[in-house]
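Workshop exercise sheet. Pairs work together: one partner reads the sequence aloud, the other fills in the structure field after running the prediction. Swap roles for the next sheet.
Pair: D.N. / O.F.
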Amino acid sequence: MTDAAIVVSNLRVVRGGAVVLPGLSLEIARGRVTGLLGPSGCGKTTLMRAIVGVQIVAGGTISVLGEPAGSRQLRSRVGYVTQAPSVYGDLTVRENLGYFGRILRAGPGAVDRAIETVGLAGFGDRRVGNLSGGQLARVSLATALLNEPEVLVLDEPTVGLDPVLRRDLWKTFRVLASGGATLLVSSHVMDEAERCDELVLMREGRALATGTPAELLQRTGAPSIEGAFLSLIDSAAEATR
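Structure field:
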């Protein structure tokens, strides 16, 4: 069995006539938290959509847990949290999770376990439309956890949250990874990089660099991941001159 949960080979995606991913190749390690970092518009969301099988691709292949991305066999094994909340505001937390649990055919106790995992015990009867932004993000995460997925794809899950809520969500991510799940977490906030086991730095649809935070700092000699990212951009620009 390969150590990679996700293998992307020569992925090409064209949206609106523009090439978003020109031939991207990378691997995402099993049982780790991998940060997908880069500025807005660099292709992070398009890549994630392709991994979960909801993005039309022009070329290349994606394998997730040994199966083609988007295949029926992966429906209960891959969880996906989009940037926008994916729950119903007029239902309670428990009603939302119960609805999605029936669609996913989640097992007994799945709703209670998901609520507990995201730290919303005591909020089950709250209407989602009355929750704070951070609580809403947790409900969206809970829906993706109902089937205890082996791979969890999270698109900008902490955007707009205050530092305390960001910290608490990252604690949840670490707990999930320690239980064996593979997490791919996108962000354009460079200080979140230090919370990841592995990093993929993206720019203009390409993987500029991959490795652990320590490896990227050592490689560039930069004092921070943001500094390493800028150093890698400068090096790439010089190489093309």
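Discussion prompt: The first strand starts at residue 4 and ends at 15. What would you look at next?
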